[in-house]
Amino acid sequence: MDPIALAFYAAICGLLSLFAPSLGGMVPRMLIGAVVGILAASLLPFVKTLIGG
Predict the structure, then answer these.
(1) Tens of pLDDT, residues 1-53
(2) Contacts of 37 (CB under 8 A, 6+ apart)
(3) Which of 8, 6, 33 is nearest to 19 (CA)?
(4) What does the domain layout of the chain look like in residue ranges?
């Protein structure tokens, strides 16, 4: 895996995990995780361009 992608997704997942217990039960957390994952995947090309990767 590309090191930039790995670091980016690790940061996103780490931040999401800080809030996970307060987001409700399993289904809301799964839906929020899916939305965050889609947003993160959409933003990754832009982030890579910004940092010159």
Answers:
(1) 788 899 999 999 989 988 888 888 889 888 988 999 999 999 999 999 998 86
(2) 12
(3) 33
(4) 3-52
* DSSP letter assigned to residue 52: T
**The residue type at 52:** G
Q: Which pLDDT belongs to residue 43?
A: 92
Q: Which long-range contacts (CB under 8 A, 24 or more apart) does 28-36 make?
A: 36/12
CA distance 10 to 6: 6
9 token code pair? 């997704």
